[in-house]
Structure formats: C-alpha cells, structure tokens
From TrEMBL:
Superkingdom assignment: Bacteria
Family matches, as InterPro entries: WD40/YVTN_repeat-like_dom_sf (IPR015943)
Protein name as catalogued: BNR/Asp-box repeat-containing protein
Length: 76
C-alpha cells in the first residue's frame, strides 16, 4: 500500500494536503488534479493498484475506480 503508484504510463498519487488524486505523465516533473475527495469519502489514506481497478482507503471506507481515479464508488 502507498500513496503513489505506477499505472500504465502514469504515476498516480494522493496529495494529502489537498485530499485529492493527482497524476503525472512525465515521471513526476509536474502533477495534475484528477479527482477531489468529496466530504462523503473522508480523508484519503492509501492507494492500491488492484489490477483492473484502483482502490483508495479513506477515513470513511474503501472506494474503487475503474477509470484511473477520475471517479470513485464506495465498495460495500
């Protein structure tokens, strides 16, 4: 588990100060916002590559994304 992963040609990370998912397609030289955590998700903690989807653990549960972190859905 961690706050940054490699997925295809992108680095994807949790920016803890902004509580958002960011991506880089130039090996981390610059970062771009991919999605913000809503108040319903809580604080993002860990980011996991689970093969066909990304998982993020938050203070309010486990969420998954099948589109590189553009949108998130609660895993029940």
């Amino acid at each position: 588990m961690g706050q940054m992963i490699q997925l295809d040609d992108e680095l994807i990370r949790i920016n803890t100060s902004k509580n958002c998912i960011e991506y880089s397609n130039n090996n981390g030289r610059s970062w771009h916002n991919r999605s913000m955590a809503s108040s319903m998700m809580g604080t993002m903690q860990d980011l996991i590559n689970n093969g066909k989807e990304l998982l993020v653990t938050t203070s309010k549960g486990l969420y998954y994304s099948s589109n590189k972190g553009r949108s998130w859905h609660k895993r029940s």
